[in-house]
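## retry 2 of 3
previous attempt timed out at serialization; input unchanged, resubmitting
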Amino acid sequence: MIARSRGVKTAATPPGRSRGRLADEVYDTLLGQLMSLRIEPGSRVTIDVLARELGVSQTPIRDALNRMEAEGLVVRVPHAGYRIPPQITRHRFEDMLEVRLLLEPAAARRSAERASADQVAGLRRLLEEMAELEGGDGLTAYGAFGLRDAAFHDLVATSAENQVIREALARLHTHVHLFRLLHDTQVTHLAMAEHEQIVAAIAARDPDAAAYAMRRHILLSGERFRRLFDEADDADDADGADGMAAKA
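## retry succeeded, writing output
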């Protein structure tokens, strides 16, 4: 279920990293595999199995899973370890979209006013990293792109210097849930162009353009992912019609 990650210290690695650092590495590994669907929605994960597969003690595994539980990425099952939540529902998706439209354009506007030169450079570095991953094959590259996407939006919120907005957006874990829904390289290609427009407006210190670019990106992203729910609804309607015909 879990592939060993080069970023996680194994039992054979000499000590030297703090418990927190190792827990962070385990967290990153698990999150990446969650994003890439190597850990499937609804599957069960247990501490002892993860410890053996990642080659670390149970302590950083517990720390990482506790953090993921607090963030809604795993659910603790009494006496049975943890379980990966199912994919988000359409209702949850629409609620998330509404909240993002309220908060993220405002964050982009403030970022254009307040972002430091280092933060603008950081946004550009994330764009470069996403560009390198854009043409990658497989779910792992797609999941890695999703993590950079999340980091990009978090940095915009951070540079806005409004901790309440940043914390609210972080609790949504929008990009984790969205990128679990669909593996489509067209999504990454379109997102890249929209991200570039956001960064250009922030770097130009143009608050109106930054807010507009972010709002447009969220609306277009919503359309891209909404079609999944539309297709699922159409399939359910077709199944229902087939069932009625069979009974007739």
